[in-house]
């Protein structure tokens, strides 16, 4: 079941909407610097704040879509989540797993490739954004509560790997 | 003839971005992303709430992210095919008109329903915005960080040294905000 | 007309005339009232503190003649419209020796303003707007544009005020008019003014100064304010003269914001 895309424009405010949710364009420079900002705020758990924020907002968006389109099958939910990832321009994601554990892989990644274009390689993975996204997707697929899954980036394109890999575990 | 904002807004608002088979959106010499505004606003709110004593540092980081995004993407926009087709035929006042076109693009692409109120070429610019997504954020004080960065970026692109050498020539200060109850957001760009 | 029978203007039972103080009313308001009342006679005005004297004669809704010690006709009338301090007496039944103006009150006010503007422009080409002493002191910060626009809305007959950038961006608007859509007005005005400016440039007749457009259900008056354009919307042309007179300083003040 492919993701249905409904792009609309409010011609008074000129805000853009995707499936009823206001969206805005930014570039890889923006997300690279936001990622850098949260890394610099490591002492106040900045990276996890970013991941949790992504988890919460994406979860709400997924649930809204599933409800409006009567999506109940977990495979369909997973597919829609990964298609949304590409629609946002965030890259190409595949997921596998069950309620206990799983994995997400990125063969293309806006955040990693953007970071590489801007700054080159880094000594450790930095894709906290996608950690939150994967947590939201697994929780939505398996109807779990927020923060039900911990997501660790075990390989990152920014460190020179071909793909970014995220290991998912039920908490 | 000068750049007619409504014509530009109507033409550019029809432009949609779509990801390629790699799930990426390479446009305007950058990789574009399309994110829910609630995500961006919530992140700002949570970062500021987590470290209120480091507010200036976090605010500066948010402005910087928007500034560099605006500076690099802005250059891609004003040299893009669509800008050449839609805006450039109306340009008769050089930089001034390119800036007018840029603010029409700001509006059309949903960053802010904004425009130039006062322009002293190469010295000062006052911009008003009647709608922008950061106005929806919760918090205290003026907090249109994205717009501050974008305004500074576009003035740098227009009046500082040619890209990419003109960064950080000007600075933008927000003086009014929808988020603090004003009728509009107001931004003043001046020399650093 | 606020205050006409209040303390600003009083009726003298002996000479059946009206008298009052210019700090509390204006000559244009007074003329409009007297014209509407079908009065005929003369207004004797004394400007303070100079003690300059002037007379404006009118009858049957027309300004017939005017004179001051230095000028006669429309020039003197235009001069007196700017007197903001002083006193006046209405002398009913007085007629002038000759008719040097002979225009309806509205038309005379309009012509006087055009004359004043032409004189001002010929003496101060390309200069910054002159704000009269008393309206805003040199030391004061310029007022917020919103405050100036609200003052414009206070002028009787003005439904809406809009300030538009040269690109058609509606910078600010105040009031409301069911007659026009303000956003559409912004775009249309910018198109029109840009065309008019191009024409002025080709004809080499200096910069655009103002424009009136009269439609069946609205009159739109536009003026440049700084780098922007201000427009007011009024239901009809009947009050255009007085509106033009009363908006003059406010438009100048508005120009400081844009």
Descriptive key words:
heterotrimer; A: 171 residues; Muramoyl-pentapeptide Carboxypeptidase, domain 2; 3-stranded antiparallel sheet; 5 helices; B: alpha+beta; two-stranded antiparallel sheet; 6 strands; 22% strand; globular
Q: Helices and strands of chain A: which structural class?
A: alpha+beta
What does the largest sheet of chain C look like? 7 strands, antiparallel
Report the average pLDDT across residues of chain C.
81
Please give the CATH class of chain A: Alpha Beta
In DSSP terms (H or I, runs of 4 or more residues), the helix count of chain C works out at: 6
Q: Could you state the order of secondary-structure elements of chain A as H and E?
A: EEEHHHEEHHEE
Which structural class should the secondary elements of chain C be placed in? alpha+beta
Number of DSSP strands of chain C? 12
Question: Helix coverage percent of residues of chain C?
Answer: 25-40%
Structural domains of chain C: how many: 2
Q: Tell me the strand order in the biggest sheet of chain C.
A: 1-2-6-3-4-5-7
* Count of runs of 4 or more consecutive helical residues of chain A: 5
Which chains share the greatest interface? Answer: A-B, 54 and 48 residues
What characteristic shape of chain A results from the CA principal axes?
globular
Give the % helix of chain A. 40-55%
Task: List low-confidence stretches of chain A.
Answer: none
Shape of chain C: elongated
CATH superfamily of chain A: Trafficking protein particle complex subunit 3
Q: How many strands in all of chain A?
A: 7
**Within the CATH hierarchy, at the fold level, what is the topology of the largest domain in chain C?**
Beta-Lactamase
Overview of this protein structure:
The complex is a heterotrimer of chains A (171), B (192) and C (258). Chain A contains five helices and seven strands; from the N terminus they run E-E-E-H-H-H-E-E-H-H-E-E. With 171 residues, chain A is of the alpha+beta class. Chain A has a single domain, classed as 2-Layer Sandwich (Muramoyl-pentapeptide Carboxypeptidase, domain 2), CATH 3.30.1380.20. Chain A is globular and about 45 Å long. The model of chain A has no long low-confidence stretch (mean pLDDT 97). Helix content of chain B is 43%, strand content 22%. Chain B has helices at residues 5-13, 37-50, 55-78, 81-86, 94-108, 145-159; strands at residues 25-27, 30-36, 112-120, 124-132, 170-176, 185-191. A four-stranded antiparallel beta sheet of chain B has the order 3-4-6-5. Chain B has a two-stranded antiparallel ribbon with strand order 1-2. The model of chain B has no long low-confidence stretch (mean pLDDT 94). By secondary structure, chain C is of the alpha+beta class. Chain C has two domains: 9-111, no CATH class; 142-255, Dynein light chain 2a, cytoplasmic (Beta-Lactamase, 2-Layer Sandwich). In chain C, the strands form two sheets. Chain C has a seven-stranded antiparallel beta sheet with strand order 1-2-6-3-4-5-7. A five-stranded antiparallel beta sheet of chain C has the order 9-8-12-11-10, with helices on both faces. In chain C, helix 3 (105-123) runs parallel beside helix 6. At the A-B interface, strand 3, helix 1, helix 2, helix 3 and strand 4 of A face strand 2, helix 2 and helix 3 of B. Strand 3 of chain A pairs antiparallel with strand 2 of chain B.
